[in-house]
Write a structure and sequence with these properties.
Layout: H1 3-6, H2 20-32, E1 42-49, E2 55-62, E3 68-72, H3 82-96, E4 99-103, H4 115-129, H5 131-134, E5 141-146, H6 147-162, E6 170-174, H7 185-189, H8 198-209, E7 231-239, H9 243-255, E8 260-269, H10 279-295
């Protein structure tokens, strides 16, 4: 493990997701401890997307931005909101020069699948429909996120393809959760890794699926056909249970004719980019912004 990251491990709470309400508070406290982002040059606006039910979003608009990303926060499908994601959404907007539309999707277990994906799809459709009013090029809309949010972004790209919905230009998937089966080497062996481990992944999928069988719409790794999906950037952490399913998904995308950039970050663990003082975290975050900037450039 990167020594700059290892020193912070005792500060990470050992969330187990058995009590989602308590863990949401702990997650919010952890997010509040992250240094505030520089929002100079950003116009930030809270909006509500009409849907059933309506979906809260927070829009981060850099000056002269034209592309947009539908941004989905992490938190194991059960934690996180617009406030906890604020530091990361603001950084993504500033680094990428892209309009970031952060989605406050419904959380499990109170709202299991497909609630979160339905919310994300409603925001994607709304963004495409109102692109002119938002000052966005409708041909330059990406989807992206961290962890469970990255898994939702992958599912969103699949749904948009299958429903012939709004065109998605790119998918930015940072340490995504893609496969409920947990059969890979990393899922079977990473039982005590920091922040995310096998038991926590198991609980996350249990809450999200709510007892229903997983489908490709819920767990993108189950999709038999990955052709026709937008180009992708996939980032993995070396000491993350999701690592191997993410690499496998990247290879399957390539074999389906989808252009993929894959970056495996050595010495890192799931969510360790929150430790901003570590040089590797700074490189991870800068790369996410640079990749998105390139992907949505003309």
């Amino acid at each position: 493990m990167d020594p700059k990251l290892e020193a912070f491990i005792p500060l990470f709470p050992r969330a187990d997701l058995t009590d989602p309400v308590t863990e949401r508070k702990n997650f919010a406290d952890l997010a509040a401890a992250v240094p505030a982002p520089d929002v100079t040059g950003l116009d930030i606006e809270d909006r509500t997307v009409p849907a059933d039910p309506d979906v809260p979003v927070r829009i981060y608009r850099p000056r002269q931005a034209q592309g947009a990303v539908i941004w989905l926060h992490g938190g194991g499908f059960v934690m996180g909101d617009l406030e906890t994601e604020h530091p990361w959404a603001a950084r993504m907007a500033g680094l990428s020069g892209t309009v970031v539309i952060s989605v406050g999707y419904r959380l499990a277990p109170e709202h299991p699948y497909p609630a979160a994906l339905d919310d994300a799809y409603a925001v994607l459709a709304w963004t495409a429909e109102h692109a002119a009013g938002l000052g966005i090029d409708p041909e330059r809309i990406a989807v992206g996120g961290h962890s469970a949010g990255a898994g939702l972004a992958a599912a969103l790209a699949l749904r948009a393809r299958d429903r012939q919905g709004p065109p998605v230009r790119y998918q930015l998937l940072n340490q995504p959760g893609l496969d409920d089966r947990q059969e890979t080497w990393s899922q079977r062996h990473f039982t005590d890794t920091p922040w995310m481990n096998r038991d926590k992944v198991t609980a996350s999928w249990r809450h999200y699926l709510g007892g229903t069988p997983a489908t490709p719409d819920a767990a993108p790794a189950r999709a038999a056909d990955l052709s026709g999906l937008p180009a992708a950037y996939i980032a993995t952490a070396e000491l993350c249970p999701n690592r191997d399913e993410d690499i496998a998904y990247a290879l399957r995308l390539l074999q389906a004719g989808v252009s993929v950039e894959l970056h495996q970050w050595p010495g890192t663990f799931h969510g360790s980019q929150a430790i901003l003082s570590a040089e590797v975290s700074q490189r991870q975050i800068a790369e996410l912004g640079a990749v998105l900037r390139r992907a949505l450039a003309e």
